[in-house]
Design a protein that fits this description.
The protein has 5 helices and 5 strands. By secondary structure, it is α+β, with helices and mostly antiparallel strands. The protein has one domain: Glutaredoxin (3-Layer(aba) Sandwich), CATH 3.40.30.
Length: 137
């Protein structure tokens, strides 16, 4: 009886640990993801790029766009708070810039810093899924 309880507890603990790490795939079909990749710790470029988007939160929300910053060691949300997303799952080598991932999980844009939000918003607004969203609202 003791060993059965122990095994059940062990299985529950392993399942809980597996669910604690958030993955980008959780956003598929729900959100578009904007990754700001800064593996060289270029705070000036990173902060400038983040600033261009956080001041347009309403336009991001309208497009179901979430922003994450990947430093290579950790993944931060738009407020600079550490997330549970595994940075090893986001591998762009020495790339420094912005990556836009569509709701379908595909990479729609990969461009070096600094990218204007209008370019991202215009690209999103041309996507068939976004056009359907605008039509249905």
């Amino acid at each position: 009886m003791f060993s059965l309880r122990y095994i059940a507890l062990l299985v529950l603990m392993l399942q809980f640990n597996g669910m604690s790490a958030q993955e980008l795939t959780e956003f598929k079909w729900k959100n578009r993801v904007l990754l700001i990749i800064d593996t060289k710790n270029d705070l000036h470029a990173r902060d400038l790029q983040i600033g261009k988007f956080v001041t347009r939160n309403d336009k991001m929300k309208e497009r179901d766009l979430v922003l994450f910053v990947c430093t290579g060691k950790e993944v931060l949300d738009k407020d600079g708070l550490k997330t549970d997303i595994d940075p090893d799952k986001i591998s762009y080598g020495e790339f420094q810039g912005v990556v836009l991932i569509g709701k379908d999980g595909g990479v729609k844009l990969r461009k070096n810093f600094i990218v204007e939000p209008k370019e991202i918003f215009d690209l999103i607004d041309q996507m068939p899924m976004r056009r359907a969203e605008m039509k249905n609202r």
